[in-house]
């Protein structure tokens, strides 16, 4: 009778240890998968914020919002949608900067942006007269 009791006790202990190990393994795997999912979600959120920042640095906010709204919509036309608005009392200035290619090779990108910003600010001032 003691051999049966010892055998049953050993079997129960082995079964309990196996069950515990399996549960521990599954919990660890679930934790790692959750951690990986959260990391991916953070990367996606960061990339989305960067994409939004870049989009708004190039386009006016109302155009970017309209483009985002239309992003999921399907258009059954052969032409792409054009985002434009009508503006009254607007002048368009075309300026060819002579020697710009030569100038651009001697300045850094940030210095060029500064120079162009100052130039267009002067154009704006002159157009207000």
From TrEMBL:
One of its GO terms (cellular component) is plasma membrane. Its main location: membrane. The keyword Membrane applies. It is found in: Membrane. One of its GO terms (biological process) is adenylate cyclase-activating G protein-coupled receptor signaling pathway. It comes from the Eukaryota. This is Guanylate cyclase domain-containing protein.
